[in-house]
Design a protein that fits this description.
The complex is a heterodimer of chains A (218) and B (458). Chain A is 40% helix and 22% strand. Chain A is of the alpha/beta class. By secondary structure, chain B is α+β, with helices and mostly antiparallel strands. In chain B, strand 8 and strand 9 form a beta hairpin. The chains are: A alpha/beta (218), B alpha+beta (458).
Amino acid sequence: MAVILIAEDDKAINTLIKKNLELVGHACSSVFDGEAVFDALQTRSYDLILLDIMMPKMDGFQVVQAVKEDIPIIFLTARSAVEDRVRGLKLGADDYIIKPFDMLELQARIETVLRRVNKSEHSFCLDDVKVDFSSQQIYRKDMLVDFAPQEFLLIEALIINRNIALSRDKLLTIAWGYDYAGDTRTVDVHIHGIRKKLGWENVIKTVYKLGYRLEVKQ
Amino acid sequence: MRLKTFVATYLLFLFVLFSSVGIVSVHLTNSQVNMLKDKGAGQFQTIAHSLAWDIVAAWDNGGRRHQGDLSTVVADLVHGYARFYSRHNVLLSVVDMQLTGQNTNARQTEITFVESIDGHFILISGLLPTPHGNFLLNYSLDITDNIAQMRGIQQLLLISAAVFAIIAAFTLHIILSVIFKPLVAVAKASREIAGGKFDERIHIKGNNELARVATDFNQMAEKIEDQITTLEEEAENKQQFVDNFAHEVRTPLTSIYGYAEYMHKALLDEKEIIESTAYIMDEAQHIKHIANSLLELATIRNYIPLKKEILVSKLFDDVAQSMENSLQEKNVRLICSHDVQVLCAQEDLMKSLLLNLCTNALQACAPNEGVIHLLAKAEENGIVLRVSDNGCGIAAESLPKLTTSFYRVDQSRNRGSGGAGLGLALCKQIAQVHGAQLFIESKLGEGTVVKLKLTTSE
């Protein structure tokens, strides 16, 4: 769980990002112009800043140059020109996401940056289950549970994107790779196995016509 | 070109110079030799006559008496003469033709110029006058010194010609440089322009052909520069338009897609569902608004308005009524006044134009202290509609771009502070189809005045 600052002047988009990030367990603050970023930085420390470029008072490029704290920054902007992207990355941004963005893509990119600065989760606990990401081990009632590598990847994906439904195709790609020719029913079989092993029958929900979602109360 | 001119002119110069030097020296030599020949001939005559006279005197008065030999007498006399003339570089000898047995009748005096290893000589041989016509006098004038002197003069001529040639080369070089300077300038300027430096100009004074070429060239450069600037500006505007359009469309699309995806994948309660769908609907409305504005712009472009006489008071009332809510919200006053009763226009278009201008004015005004004046008055050749506010004003550099589609003064394009940037573009179109002109004047911090000049001449 990371603390993330969202600087975006469009209220709808700002709220949307906030909702999305809170779903997977991040804590978020919203600001709506460039100058407010610095006020927010005064009040608490952040693990990541999501920054729009076209904002009132101070644009994103100016903000990046003026931020003194060592905080990873991801640009989130409608400006898709290559020069803008290069400029943003050259100014020291960690990533550059172009609107309209995909929810899962946003989560994945944030996760990558957080992992790079070692701010990502190391473990996840739910009831009597503990998942250790660094050692890739899962305990239930403090007893080590045995898992196939694919099953662990599935669990990891579901936890990182908790409260978000992941399609069977997506899960198949995550656990078996793009070139896997298997059926999406393989996913069903493995999910069934995971549910049984961890007693997660009510935690991993089947979403109609879509796939699976790991539901955790926020 | 310059080198060719230099070489050609210089070769011509060298040819003329050295051929004249050659002709002069040959002529000088010839005349000198002729002069010496004449001198020799004169001396020869003198010697011949005085010798003949002396022979007669010596022979008749003493020779015969002394029973001497005529040849001896002559030899003695010649010896004396020769001794005297040797000081004048002259050698003399006499030959008795009777002894050699040669025919003396047809003998003429011969003058020859001889050039030998020993030097240059003028040789004259001729018979003495009667009665001793059988004696042939040989006269030789040594002119080696004269010829050497001539050679000296020739050398001097040649050296001075060479010196002149060198001086001429330098002078020619300088003259050509001066003449070719404007051409070099033209060449340089055209190279620069070809290389993309379009602000390059040539400066040539005077009124000659080259100055005219330079003037034409400068005009050409100016035109190219203008066109390039226009093209660059157009390209920039186009890019700006595309960027702005992309932003205007992408922002609502991001929201729509984002919220839809959110609803699709996350578990929502009823409150969240309503919030999310509200956002989706709002953003869809915004896109619809842009689409409508664009459509309106496109339609109006080739539109012929149905002009009718409309009452200004009614037009202003309608505008005021439409604006009422938003005016109250911000507590801004709208003051309408008019000294014309009717104007000729299409009512709904004119209303749309005024509403757009008033909305912009309201946007610029500060809450509670803003005042917007809506005014219609008659001017020299038409009616002027004027919308003025005491709001924040517009920066001078933004003024020319205001009527460009999707242009927004607010670089961040925040939707809270305005629309998509199509309002003034639409106003300009409406003005155009009415044959009217739109003028915008503004000062930062003082407010903005927009004037619409409607001509009544039609």
